[in-house]
Write a structure and sequence with these properties.
The longest helix has 31 residues, at 69-99. The chain has one domain (6-54, 61-109): Helix Hairpins. Helix 1 (2-20) runs antiparallel to helix 2 (24-46) and helix 2 packs antiparallel against helix 3 (69-99). 71% of the residues lie in helices and 0% in strands. It is mainly alpha-helical.
């Protein structure tokens, strides 16, 4: 239970960074923290104490099997998160080239 609460706290730190910060770089970092918190949550859901791999051998019965599906989902999520982060960083660089700042309030004021 403690691990789930720590995962929730990590997600709340990322959410705070996204909602309250005005710098685009800090918002991108907050998005990354939120993504890592969700990946950690999925892995925690699949964890079994003294769990074994889901490979079944002949004449062997596995009682405490680790669920492999969340692991595959997290691997997919990491790849998608990397692509989204690269896209957001490239957009932030283009905004900086155009306006000369990462501050959102300044960008809104400079809108033409």
């Amino acid at each position: 239970m403690t691990l789930y609460l720590l995962c929730l706290a990590l997600f709340c730190v990322g959410l705070y960074g996204v909602l309250r910060k005005r710098n685009l770089v800090k918002i991108i970092i907050g998005l990354g923290i939120m993504e890592y918190a969700m990946n950690l949550f999925f892995i925690l859901l699949a964890y079994r104490y003294h769990g074994r791999s889901p490979i079944e051998a002949q004449d062997q019965q596995i009682l405490q099997m680790v669920d492999p599906l969340p692991q595959a989902l997290v691997l997919t999520s990491i790849v998608i998160g990397l692509a989204v982060t690269a896209l957001v960083i490239s957009i932030a660089i283009r905004i900086y080239e155009k306006y000369g700042t990462f501050d959102i309030t300044e960008i809104k004021r400079l809108r033409g």
